[in-house]
Design goal:
This protein is mainly α and 167 residues long. The chain has 7 helices and no strands. The relative contact order is 0.09.
Length: 167
């Protein structure tokens, strides 16, 4: 298998939803591909080409409708063998993967939403971190009313020092 194909497969696996990846990995399709290849007496080269074509369909890179055409063209198989292998792949690999995907999608949530909410941290358990770009406001213990606090006298003795005297 060449490096471009490996990269394409890796990218496709990263794009697939996690439940689909879980369903694909739960089905032992790699061993079934080898069994189908042995059962149809494919040599090592054709077995590897068959494995590649099947993997492209399983990962959704190639359309299942093109699968028999690709088997005939790339693996160089006759029509009877292509039909037999396509049926075996559908029965042993594609159908179990699709049913595993359906089971994963229909599986109920393991935790109830209320249980998840109860496990979330609250403001009492987390320390408050003040923002660094704002001044810190320290709460005062006693608040004095405005009448008790004397207002400062801003008048200057002898006149305003910033104003030029008139003569």
């Amino acid at each position: 298998m060449n490096q471009d194909l490996k990269n394409t497969i890796r990218e496709r696996l990263n794009k697939l939803p996690p439940d689909v990846v879980a369903a694909i990995t739960n089905v032992s399709w790699v061993e079934k591909i080898q069994d189908i290849a042995k059962g149809n007496k494919l040599d090592e080269e054709r077995g590897e080409l068959f494995w590649t074509e099947t993997m492209l369909v399983v990962l959704g890179i190639e359309s299942p409708e093109k699968y028999p055409i690709n088997l005939a063209a790339n693996v160089r198989l006759d029509d009877g063998t292509v039909i037999k292998i396509a049926k075996e792949v559908d029965e042993q690999i594609i159908t179990p993967i699709l049913s595993a995907i359906e089971r994963v999608k229909q599986k109920p949530l393991e935790k109830d939403v209320s249980e998840i909410k109860s496990n979330l941290p609250t403001s009492t358990t987390l320390p408050e971190i003040p923002p660094t770009n704002l001044p810190v406001i320290v709460p005062q213990k006693e608040s004095k009313s405005l009448t008790e606090v004397p207002l400062p006298d801003y008048r200057y003795e002898g006149g305003d020092p910033y104003r030029e005297p008139l003569k």
